[in-house]
Design a protein that fits this description.
By secondary structure, this protein is of the alpha/beta class. The longest helix is centred in the N-terminal third of the chain and has 20 residues. The chain folds into two domains: 373 residues, Peroxisomal Thiolase, Chain A, domain 1 (3-Layer(aba) Sandwich), CATH 3.40.47; 34 residues, no CATH class. β10, α11 and β11 form a beta-alpha-beta unit. α2 runs parallel beside α6 and α10 crosses α11. Strands 1, 2, 5, 6, 7, 8, 9, 10, 11, 14 and 15 form an eleven-stranded mixed β-sheet that branches. A two-stranded antiparallel ribbon has the order 3-4.
Length: 427
Amino acid sequence: MPRSDQDSQGRPVVVITGTGVLTSLGQGKADNWARLTGGVSGIHRISRFPVAGLRTTIAGTVDFVPVAALSAPALSERLAELVAEEAIAEAAIGRPGDFPGRLFLALPPVELEWPQRLALAEASGANETVGYEDLLRAAGSGAFEANYRRFLFGSVAENLADALGTKGSPVAISTACASGATAIQLALEAIRRGETEAALCIGTDASVNPESLIRFSLLSALSTRNDPPEAASRPFSKDRDGFVMSEGAGALVLESLAHARARGARILGVVEGCGERADSFHRTRSNPDGRPIIACLRNALEDAGIGPEDVDYINAHGTGTPENDKMEWLGVSTVFGERAGSIPMSSNKSMIGHTLTAAGAVEAVFSLLTLREGRIPPTINYDAPDPALPVDCVPNVARDATLRRAISNSFGFGGQNVSLVLATEPA
């Protein structure tokens, strides 16, 4: 391999040659980028199911994408197909149904949802309380095989691999809110090890259903600022009160630089490094001393072979929960020192909400667009600065800037932390 195709540590340089995105702002990069940089919110009142009596009645659903027999895995799969098609077309790689590399997919946990449970209960024929044996009997009748196959965790990845023609067994992972970034990390490492020359990374999530909404509400994690919906997500603001559940998907085609050059591909950007650090402190909360987040950021810089002074922009995890924003600032201020307050650090979630499993991939696409376009999306709804968080969050209005390198943070429940380092071109 020519030396120019290797990084400073002698590993294959990994580049991005195609991207795709879909969020509550719309389908495709063009619509999303125009609205994101225009400070438009995709959050709205939920119409998919009744919300009377719920503390939170808003979300960033993608109701404009139809699927038959709506369920989280069905819609997640469809969103993944759409963004994969956009990314593969931009990369001009392979042929339809014949992608020359592996699939790394981040998707939400899959479980039987209430419509299917109720159908099973009705089919059991039980007159009173329905027990587990009744459900087994109904399922064993053979009438629910389609539901059985639909609600297997691996079904989404297997269906996508068949449709897209990816090679080898698909890798399906769920590491909470870091999942999309984890998929990119695994692909980066596989290409560096020489296991594949190309990879398709997808993060997808369509989990806005009554159960998920209630569960997050019981954790006091969701914003209850229901009116107006577009003002609910308020990262880094003093009056922030929680995140807003949303749906979406992001896809990236990664290749070794040698492979991309050999086929004459257009290079969109570089995945220079990735850092991760687990935190076993609590099922949802971060360690209050910030060590795992600090280590995650430092690992990302070390993996990329750069220092804190080389970062021009941080795409914050920025959920808008009091705890998360505080811990992210603790990590950033520790790692970047005196520069921390002067590095632009905005949150896409102020406009698209929290796309959960998909967030790491969606926000990696937006980070790349930020670098390429030289325009930083704002953090909207920033009307009450928090003096404890002196962040340059690019308040309310997009900002033009000359950018070479960005970090995209993804910090998930259970202390699953991933930071990606992206650059405009190989060093």
